[in-house]
Amino acid sequence: MAVFNIALVKGDGIGPDIVNEAVAVLNRIGDLYGHSFKYNETVAGGSAIDKLGHPLPDETVEACLKADAVLLGAVGGPKWDNLPGDLRPEKALLGLRSALGLYANIRPAILYPALRSACPLKDSITSGGLDLVVVRELTGGLYYGERGRKQTPDMGEAAYDTMIYSEKEVERIGRTAFELARRRRKKLVSVDKANVLESSRLWREVMHRIKDDYPDVDYSDMLVDNAAMQLVRNPGQFDVIVTENTFGDIISDEASMITGSIGMLPSASLGGGTRGLYEPIHGSAPDIAGRDMANPIATILSAAMMLRLSFNLEKEADTIEQAVIAALNDGFRTADIAGGLPAVGTKDMGAAIRDRLH
Fold first, then answer.
1. Which of 112, 143, 165, 278 is flagged as catalytic?
2. For the whole prediction, is pTM greater than 0.90?
3. Which of 10, 69, 153, 357 is the most exposed place for a label (fewest CB within 10 A)?
């Protein structure tokens, strides 16, 4: 029996609600396929601040480094909004990605046929379906650059954040995206702002340098403002999108709404090895925490990505994804994707997916 060690970081708000459903799905998969998943629950984000006074305690980092993979719910909430920047719950995510050496965030966006009516775009735009992936650089750019505040002579206090990228950072995320495109429909769009930003000009230079190593991939550049427009004008044109940290944060959220709900999108954060951090891209939604209202699908699909990318369990991942599709086809909907149909709660949606695992 194969044994896989998973660090569980349930986090804040609806985090525990959705992670619990993903764990139940993993346990069912273990029963079906003869695997054993062992969980080490640890804390990060607001819950860690409340318990230990810091958003990312050393023991949490240690637990995640010892695990084969990390499954995370969500962090943050208004309760901690007034804390200094270095003590905000979101610092836990940045710190974990850095500590684990995770530089590539993989965010698939799929419009399932059963949810076509939940898409805000016209049927004529989405008739061909939507199946794209955003590959977002995770450890550089504005979120990690030098920042601070200073006094100006006549304009009061000023704040600054620095976007900086090195050739190595761009090349490794670029090659990750090219390799992913090779496994899909062999089309890659690199999104930047090279008409304005020097960091984007370097980004484009490096991407052009490595694209010759992938002659089978149809490569093109696109400015980020045009990419945002094209995502709602003709999303079907995209297969794999690669971009820097801030642009990727925004573009992937835009893509999520085209699929019907941000509650549908999973993500994987990867580095040079097999260990990854898996989480839904949505927030902690504290207003519905503990009320059996959250959509667990993004977290369950994140668990499927974990099986595929960290544990090399392709068939098991497919089984989860097909069970999600079957539950949707059978009319199960949480409130965010109900679209006029009766809504079920978090637990019932999880149970519907588990019942279709076979």
1. 143
2. no
3. 153
